[in-house]
Design goal:
Strands 1, 4, 5, 6, 8, 9, 10, 11 and 12 form a nine-stranded mixed sheet that branches. Strands 2-3 form a two-stranded antiparallel sheet. Helix content is 30%, strand content 24%. By secondary structure, the protein is of the alpha/beta class.
């Protein structure tokens, strides 16, 4: 079956983010800032750049209200105060948020087990049976390009795709820290499976898989609570591997630079990368790091 090109994206932030406690007992992990924008906004902007029209954010019970406020609250009191102070230009950042594609925030279905596949399954009712869709994990940020745009452009060339995933080449010495792609066909760049954290000598390639996927509704056949895998969790990559057994799952290489914000150390690296690439005080930061 040929599915329609994606116009919807599911962005997930439904975990407890225990490595960030205590801050994440109040603030969702993807609301941590990169510059003056939360991580979630950068992922939403990546979707918008690719032409996505509707976004479903899957959050925790506590996070749902935070995201609804951030993307929908016009803050008229702040707007009036800025106007009175002659600082109308500062409201432009809020206007940009309010002009994002349609955003619906839902809670992860508590009936699903723990695992990164459960937020996707929770958004099933928002996906029509005849359309492909995009999934983005909010703790993965991409600098310099839109992976989602790359996925959609690839789908235009591969209408037979069951799914398309993004990859990044990584140094050999860190291959044991990530999910590593084994290709079924290196010429066609089709997936065989993804090996989680292999021993370096056993890594099937240097291509790391991370949270940017184009999926077809067939994935929901495998995102079933009965199909738990490692540690009793429901894994997206397990569902994608099942799809690869009956059809083509294509692998694309990112045209940007992927960084994870999934733990405090890597978040700090991503924040530093964002600062050096985007802030007008980047040289001051370089000087500070050099001298301290």
């Amino acid at each position: 079956m040929n599915y329609k090109l994606p116009t919807k994206a599911i962005i997930t932030d439904a975990g407890f983010a225990s490595r960030y406690l205590p801050i994440t007992k109040t603030v969702p992990k993807a609301m941590l800032p990169l510059g003056n924008r939360p991580i979630m906004q950068l992922v939403v902007e990546e979707c918008a750049e690719a032409g996505i029209k509707e976004i479903i954010i899957v959050a925790t019970h506590e996070g749902k209200a935070v995201y609804e406020d951030y993307f929908n609250n016009a803050c008229t009191k702040i707007k009036k105060q800025l106007h009175a102070q002659g600082k109308d230009d500062r409201y432009a950042a809020i206007s940009k948020v309010l002009d994002m594609p349609k955003i619906t925030v839902i809670e992860q279905d508590p009936a699903y087990p723990y695992g990164n596949g459960s937020p996707i399954a929770s958004a099933r009712k928002f996906i029509n049976d005849d359309e492909a869709f995009v999934v983005a994990y909010s703790d993965d940020v991409v600098f310099g390009s839109s992976d989602i745009k790359t996925l959609i452009e690839s789908y235009k060339k591969h209408e037979d795709a069951k799914a398309i995933i993004i990859s990044q080449e990584m140094p050999r010495e860190v291959l044991n820290k990530y999910g590593i792609i084994r290709l079924a066909d290196e010429t066609k760049m089709t997936l065989d499976n993804i090996v989680e954290k292999p021993a370096i000598e056993d890594a099937p390639s240097n291509l790391t898989s991370y949270g940017r996927y184009l999926l077809t509704p067939e994935v929901f056949e495998h995102l079933d609570p009965k199909n738990t895998g490692l540690d009793g969790e429901l894994w997206t990559v397990d569902a994608i591997t099942k799809m690869a057994e009956s059809g083509n799952v294509y692998v694309e290489k990112t045209e940007g630079r992927w960084m994870t914000t999934g733990d405090p150390k890597n978040y700090m690296f991503a924040l530093l990368r964002y600062t050096l690439d985007n802030e007008d005080f980047a040289d001051d930061v370089r000087e500070f790091v050099k001298n301290n």
